[in-house]
């Protein structure tokens, strides 16, 4: 509704301005009549730029015309209509306000050391909008500005300059959601980008800055030259985190999980988490109480920590994730951990558990995992209700990097705009502005459950580490930094000038902090340790357990049949795809014993039996609902309505939760996320499947730094399962190998399990074993491709009802061990090729055995097999991968150690190659036939370890 009969009545200016902004962003979002008017204006100004940044020139003409129309319809002199000239001025004022909203951040006072001169922005010049000195005292409508309805122009300019060009630079006009944008405008303009702080608040701010500076100076003096990756120059991070935690607690949040790299980590541990100073000193001095026979440990600035902190709203649990030096790789890990914790709290919206990620400026712009993690943030199965991102912006990458070479975007935070996250740049030398944006960011996140970015612009007082000399490559920057007072000193002088403290009191704070550190007193807010809260992650059940626990993973036939019937039930009228309907019919036959079991059925039954026992399951990856190779069909789709249905979610009232997530096209972030989820959820089966096994290459950092080493570095437990399709099928170098050799190379200290199941029953027992026994280590499974429907790769119902996962599968045919002249060991798909070739040849002098668990290597079972075939002279390892790949190089020492009587094992397979497989089908077939023939019929010269051609 208009406020008066005239559309251009002054009180309607904000309505029209808002309407025009919405039109620029999304023309379909406004009334058809208004859209038609603006369309006409745009056609008349076809040569002008378009989009949200477009000048508002065309709308001025519209205002003039509307004013004329309004005047012609005037009925009484009491309605204050705008003359054309006044309408043009009014429009210009609104355009100027919008200019500050869009571009004020470019000239804001956000750089404490003022490295570069701010640019000249025409949009912020009144003259650009045809506003001159004669207009400054004139009163104008303020439109949508959060201010009195009418103000003099000079007052309007003063207000928007204070709000948008002070020590906070706000970027939010790229957001298309009007509600979010207006909410931010109200908070910024209503408070003039300044917090409401009383004297006690301001003194507490100085206390925190004193603590932030104090710990760094103390460590620098006590441990000269040792690396600590100092926070100096970014000290305002400490009051920022303190405010964030206290405000989150006040808002009812129960947990905060923080991920950060090494910069400032020791400071955060001391002053926020309350880690005892003497523990940190012990780490510097090498007095770490750790059993090196059990753990490798890690450097002090990678270590995590957990504690509980008092807040006005109750106790908040804080967790700081362990993080390697791969900077931003912690991002998805923290998000996954948060999702698991939210699940335990039954926190569907993210109101109780808050993720906080602390980044470096160059890393935020440069590391691809940042973009991948942001892309996860609003997806259904990965969202955590919004993350508060804090960028410690030192305005430099590594010491030798020129700031202009660290990115191609104006700000390091620009990548976040793809998810329409607001960005608040803040001058680290203004701790009160830091508090304001902290409150604003947290409240935005909690209000809209979206990511938000705080760009804490500061500097790095020392080099990349404490032994570095940054002035060698950055002389001008460090000349400024060394002349610049610390943030504590700047704020102390400010409080002294305001009469809140004296210089002597400020100095006393410094001395008191140092005394506390030397006495080993915990400096942070009161912390509470050892609390048993609802979200506690308890891994104690698997401590001291070993991988070779004997567990029966069979399931009674009646239970299998009952669960299958439930899985095959569909909603009334559900229309299956013909190929899926055929598969459904086959599964009905399987459960009645009319058809042997295939891989898809056995895998789904493993999930069903675990779910029925109350164990939650989370399966993610690209195309996992259906399965890349059309075998799983855990999620099916109605061919008429397009609706999806997940049978495993409808097994019973008290079943565990099941979710199959067709993830975004990411490996690094998604695998990191699932790893984080698995570390925080001991009692759920968490699986990630690569579309092809070699796609895991894209997540190698997660594999190297977390999955295979976190247990020995940090003592972390994790039961994540990785399903990696593997097998040379003649499809070229890619899509062939899951790089089995890389996983085996990383094996030590019983850190992971590497298995190659070759039957559906083996897969059934393997997945059940992962959850039934009290043992949790990451499980790497080389899963098949062609075997999913191979006529020999089948199992019986009886195979599922009894037994357990077998680490070595015995000879399948009735071959007498006494007549065996050659014993062939192998893993994976090549077994079936060997088996079919041997049967075709009618050979009975060759036994073929499958090693189904390559690590931990089943030494006892292997020795028993060798004993069974004690009379056999020739022992062969056969693999389809090239000799420098696959399992051979990583397990041959096991053969040499366990095979006695002077016998030597021999390798049969493809020659060493730089590529995993050849690129032509004919070459693949020729190589494969040769290795099969050699494994079954070749003879060897022990001195040369070469094949002698048959006579």
Automatic annotation (TrEMBL):
It catalyses: N(6)-[(R)-lipoyl]-L-lysyl-[protein] + 2-oxoglutarate + H(+) = N(6)-[(R)-S(8)-succinyldihydrolipoyl]-L-lysyl-[protein] + CO2. It comes from the Bacteria. One of its GO terms (cellular component) is oxoglutarate dehydrogenase complex. Keywords: Glycolysis, Oxidoreductase, Thiamine pyrophosphate. GO terms for biological process: glycolytic process; tricarboxylic acid cycle. GO terms for molecular function: oxoglutarate dehydrogenase (succinyl-transferring) activity; thiamine pyrophosphate binding. Residues 597-790 form the Transketolase-like pyrimidine-binding domain. Its EC number is 1.2.4.2. Its cofactor is thiamine diphosphate. Belongs to the alpha-ketoglutarate dehydrogenase family. Homodimer. Part of the 2-oxoglutarate dehydrogenase (OGDH) complex composed of E1 (2-oxoglutarate dehydrogenase), E2 (dihydrolipoamide succinyltransferase) and E3 (dihydrolipoamide dehydrogenase); the complex contains multiple copies of the three enzymatic components (E1, E2 and E3). E1 component of the 2-oxoglutarate dehydrogenase (OGDH) complex which catalyzes the decarboxylation of 2-oxoglutarate, the first step in the conversion of 2-oxoglutarate to succinyl-CoA and CO(2). This is 2-oxoglutarate dehydrogenase E1 component.
